[in-house]
Each structure stands twice: as C-alpha cells, then as structure tokens.
Amino acid sequence: MRCVIIHYHEVALKGRNRSFFEQRLVHNLRMAVRDVGGKQVDALQGRIRVMLSPDASWPLVRDRIARVFGIANFSLAQSAPFGDDTPHLLDPLKHAIGAAISNLAFNTFRVSAKRSDKRFPLTSMDVEREIGAHVCEVTGKSVNLRHPDLTVHIETLIKDAYYFMGREEGPGGLPVGTSGTVACLLSGGIDSPVAAFRLMKRGCTAIFIHFHGRPYVSRASEEKVRELAALLTRYQFQSRLYLVPFGDIQRQIVVEAPSAFRIVLYRRMMIRIAEELARRERCWALVTGDSLGQVASQTAENLSVVEEAAGLPLLRPLIGMDKVEITEQAQRIGTFETSIEPDQDCCRLFVPPHPSTRTDIDPIRKIEHGFDLIALVKQGLDAAELVDLAFPTS
Ligand code: ATP
Ligand code: MG
Question: What is the CA radius of gyration of the chain?
Fold first, then answer.
C-alpha cells in the first residue's frame, strides 16, 4: 500500500508536549492532503503515516506536504507485512523490495534500516544484512556504504514494515497552531508577508490586518493584500483578514498634526486599532515587517515611539535582516511577485516631504492629547471588514 512516511524534528517535539505537537501536526497534514488523495493520517511510533488513495498524484501530495511546518523530511513509501515465523519474518519485505528495485537504474546501493520498537526480534543490522544480500542476489549490484547511488530505507514498526528509496526535505519549524495566535500587520509590500511567514513557521496561527486608504485611493492595495493573505493561507489552511479603512483617520491626523510627525502618528493609530482586533481574536502579539533603518519610519527612535503605543508585545522578526535577505525569502515563499505589483498604499497618502527620523515621544503625546483617540480607534473598528480565507479552496 502506498503511503507517505513523515519524520519530524525530535528535539522540538520531545518531552511532555510531544503528543500535543504530534496531534497538531496530524491535524495540519489532514488539512493539507484532504483533496489530493490523502486518506488516513496517523501518528505511529515516532513518525506520521499518510495513506494515499491509488489515484493520488505524488507531485501534488509532495507539494502540499512540503508546506506543512514541523516536518524534517518525508518519503513516498510502501508497506509490507511480516512473515509468519522468525526465519521468514522478512520474506514479504524482501520480495517487495526486490521487485520494486529491479526497475531502477543504479550501480551501487546500501540498505539503511531503523527499528522503531525494540520488541521487534531483528536488529537494524540484521535487517540491513538480510535485505542487502537479497538485493545483491536479484540485481547483481554491489553494496557501497559511503557513496551509494541508491539507498533503500526500511523502518520496522511493530505490525509491519515500510520501505522507500527517496527523501524530501521538509520545511522545518513547528506545527502551525502550537504557538498561539498573532496579529500580522500586512501592508502589501515585500516585508510584512515574510514577517508573517516567519511567525507561522514558529507555530503561530496568523490573523492579518490591512489598513487601506479608501475612499481616497483605489481598491488596488486591498486586492493585493487579499492575494498575499491567500498565498500565506497555504501554510496554515485557514486565515482571517481584517481590512480597515484608514483614509479618513489619516485626514484627521493631517488636520491636527505637524507634517513631520504624520508617519509616526499613523503607525501609532494602526497599532492601537490592530491591538483591539488582536484582543478580540485572542492574539498574544502584534507582528510587523519593520527592518532597522530601512526607511524613515524604521529608525531606532521611530520604532521605539511606535512601539510605545502597543500594549501587547510587538514582534519584528525582520529587524536584523537587510532588503536582499528579505527579498530572497519572499521569493522562496512565493509572495514576491504579488508584493511588487503596483498599488496605492495608504502610507503614501498625505505623506510629508520631510518626515522626522528622530521623533521624541513627548511632542507625540502632546499632539495625541488633542485627538479623541478612543473615537478614532472606534471609527476604524466599526468600519473593519472581515474576510475568511481557506486553503484548499474547495
Ligand atoms: P512592507 O514591505 O511590509 O510594506 P516597508 O518596508 O514598506 O514594509 P513600512 O511601509 O514602513 O515598511 O511599513 C513597516 C511595517 O508596518 C510593515 O511591514 C507592516 O507590518 C506595517 N504596515 C505599514 N503599512 C501598513 C498598512 N497599510 N497596513 C498594515 N500594516 C502596515
Ligand atoms: Mg510598506
């Protein structure tokens, strides 16, 4: 029977939390393969097995599993039963491997066996020797332990054995849903989707919040952010995206405040509104794509003044990365092409020619004293629109 054998990082998943992580990983895998022929997903003695229907396409399944965080590596495998009595225990496995291997092109090989349960009477070495001898016999090929053309992997469990010839890299990280929920401020640029991705990879479920400039700009930034959120949903299967109209709030700030402080004031308003949404969604942190010194709003001073408006922890996973590194990540994740499409970001609306790069908190507090902050936050919350996203979409 065809299946996928999945290995996770033992170190991250060990200890008392193991079954919690394992169950979450099983759940995420079920979501990932449910429409591409994944049948049953089970945790079995330190690995996870996904059974495949006969018509399942391996490239499709592989593509899905490669995006499930928490996986170290995975393989397309076959199962074989054990024989009835001790001398013939490995006979069915031997014959299955002999038949499977005779179609493959290779000159040298090795067998690498793992015993998951010490109650199984044969050691890994016993299995390697017996299967290796059989492969030599049926193919005439020779063993090379150091640099084989082909490695036959065998895992003996208590009821049956699994064998596979190839191994795919997993994405690493922790299963989404094991590190709580965070609220990611998604702008439509290159950086913020990467920031969200990094937290998702550490096991967080992300909700997304976007501030758009309507009614003063077109829908372009919203459409882009919907697309980015959909791309990120491939890693967590379900997402919530809040779209918050920000143009009128910005206009009120423009009327009241000296132009040099506008950007910092916009950001502090975004943080306050995002924080209310985050609390509703039981998030433990806010996440932004800031990187130190990248633009005027991201100087050390301005980052500090923006953070001062936050009550929840404000996470900035890209803070020490430069644009080249962030861009490379965006390309790997698959968000870059969407991020560079032209739009009308609300932050470019009412932007001053000379923003302050070394903002001090005192004048900011004084200016905000003149605002009705509670009413401005309420205005954003009341107008926020919620979009639910799912992957796969069917
Ligand atoms: P990005 O590429 O993520 O847009 P950036 O280099 O353009 O980042 P800024 O525009 O200064 O940087 O934004 C810094 C961070 O503030 C963004 O990464 C994002 O988390 C948040 N942010 C900025 N504008 C918005 C917005 N319109 N809606 C939601 N979050 C925003
Ligand atoms: Mg931006």
Answer: 27
